[in-house]
Amino acid sequence: MVETVIHDAHVVVDEGWEIPGGWVALDGGRVHAVGGPGDPQPTATHRVDAGGRLLTPGLVNTHHHMYQNLTRAYAPAINGSLFQWLTTLYPLWARLDEEAVHLSTYVGIAELLLGGCTTSSDHLYVHPRPNLIDAQVAAAREIGFRFMATRGSMTRSVDDGGLPPREVVQDEETILADSERLVARYHDPSPGALTRVALAPCSMFSVSESIMRSTAELAEQHDVRLHTHLAEDRDEDVYSQEVYGCRPVEYFERVGWASSRSWVAHYVYGSETENRRLADAGVSATQCPSSNMILAGDTADAMALRGLGMAVGLGCDGSASNDAASMWLETRGALLLGRYRHGPGSMTARDALSMATRGGARNLGWDDEIGHLRPGACADVVVWESLPLTLAGALTDPVEAWLRTGPSRAWSSFVGGRELVRQGELLLGGLEDVLRRHRAVATAIQGLG
Length: 449
Hints:
This is Cytosine/adenosine deaminase-related metal-dependent hydrolase. The protein is an alpha/beta fold.
């Protein structure tokens, strides 16, 4: 007997493998078996009738700043460029403490679950006080969510030619020591792990060249992944030329980051030659469609990068550059941007789903276990729900209908075989209290109390 069977679904097992009217059996935190309508189903303790809905692997969010939901849609920053909104919000983020980070992470994960996400990384690079990553891990563990914490860092304040105020930067010794502590305490490389850690200096305009090099060496030593922002904004090009005497990608290579250990956020402004160099080195990238559109810049050419063999995932990014944390919305946005850029034959819903699943898993170095539902994979499953009205007439292709109609959200979600969303409702008993406390903390951080 297995723990759970989800049946009567259009099952997307993996790229190129779909089962109309299929079922998925979950047991011991793993996908036990999959089958079609004519295949015998194992006996199960718990059965979920999907009612003909679409079932996919859980979506993987590979770039986020969850603490920023404490300044969601903050009016003084909403119409600024990237650098303008950063300089407006940094002083507010300097007020972060453990409670604020715990609450914002809890809220961020809950929101992601409703948007079909079952695994997320988070890039926390503002550290005005110690132990903020610990607060994130605690929130993820309370919920039972698969989480890759990234120990972000900033060393260059406005006093040193950077953007952030001195209150949110740290010295290199503190950063490296805490990175070592967090990897030793929380990084779990074992199969089926719920918690892993990566190292993530924020960006070239907020950290020193030496911390970039030291962090890459530390990641190699402990066999963890590396993450940063790269080639996100035209101003970054100018900054890199003035400070480092080269373009951002050349700097990235110079400091030892051009390897299969690294995934980068946004990566909008690489040249064709630079794109090929990074793809050949095994670097992967995250596209953040909503953030790119809200900031009115440009966006990564995801299909061109994929054509070079680069793994491209999707990310929600943080509030002020994107005030919603729905991976369904980002997957739809990727589809629309790809088709808008290259024409109607350039990208399909299955391409976008591949980015949100397999692509994201590859970003995180986790594609052996997540991003697909082959037997033996982690039991991270989403059954999707759209209003019957929006699906009326969508009879021929449930995957295309999933992104072309909508909005869709999770009807049922499992992480490691544990049900966290049931019939569209979060199974989180403490959410109401968390939201009340989150509002009080957000009010104080925004100076509205």
